[in-house]
Amino acid sequence: YYKSENARLLDGNLLIEAKAEMVGGKSYTSARMITKDRFAFKYGRIDVRAVLPKGQGIWPAIWMLGANINTVGWPKCGEIDIMEMIGGSAEREKTVYGTLHWDNGGSHACTCDKPGHILASGSFNDKFHVFTVTWDETFIIWYVDDVQFNKIDITPSGLSEFHENYFLIMNLAVGGNWPGNPDVSTKFPQRMIVDYIRVFQKQ
């Protein structure tokens, strides 16, 4: 259950917090920040400096959806996942993923088979890291701390979704098919701490 009270500023950082509490028939609360109808853009460089949460069932994400979603729906609007992580083990918590989703002749397609970025040591909960996407007419490229880990050619005609305006989303999900549900090992509250989001575009 997403509620605005779970997002706040502390010491100059944005905190998105997940709690174990029953609201609206849901067992957990969190927050989602979204720029839909406020800010959208096409092409550029997006940097997000953040510390990620941890724990079984914890699923932080920084991502984008096509601004035409209300007209064409998902996945035809397109989705650009800048960063996703699923908590639950040391291996999971040192790995992040960058993924594209789009419509392929009326069915969902994605780059879900692409490898993620794995830290050499520690986890994404230990300290701030910078998650980056560069996006132009030809490629979408993903980086962690300026180290490239994924690159997708978006020039094929079937990928026209990625040449439209997109808005930004940040959320801290709890549970779901990918991470699974929290268990007794999951400690609450969990926080995604965001220092900044920066979008750069050519003039």
Keywords:
globular, 203 residues, 1 helix, seven-stranded antiparallel β-sheet, mainly beta
Explain what this protein looks like in three dimensions:
It is a single chain. The protein has 203 residues and is mostly beta strands. Helix content is 2%, strand content 50%. The strands form 2 sheets. Strands 1, 2, 3, 5, 11, 12, 13 and 15 form an 8-stranded antiparallel β-sheet that branches. Strands 4, 6, 7, 8, 9, 10 and 14 form a 7-stranded antiparallel β-sheet that branches. It has 1 helix and 15 strands. The longest helix has 4 residues, at 69-72. The mean pLDDT is 97.
State the helix count: 1
Beta-strand residue fraction: over 45%
Number of strands: 15
Main beta-sheet strand count, sense and barrel state: 8 strands, antiparallel
Could you give the order of the helices and strands? Answer: EEEEEEHEEEEEEEEE
Category from helices, strands and their pairing? mainly beta
Mean pLDDT comes to 97
The first-to-last residue Cα distance is 40 Å
Q: Uncertain runs with pLDDT below 50, 5 residues or more?
A: none
Radius of gyration: 17 Å
Helical content stands at: under 10%
Overall spatial form: globular
SSE layout and pairings?
Layout lengths: L6 E4 L2 E11 L2 E4 L2 E3 L9 E8 L6 E9 L2 H4 L6 E6 L10 E10 L2 E4 L6 E2 L10 E7 L3 E6 L2 E7 L12 E9 L15 E11 L3
Antiparallel strand pairs: 1-2, 2-3, 2-15, 4-14, 5-11, 5-15, 6-7, 6-14, 7-8, 8-9, 8-10, 11-12, 12-13
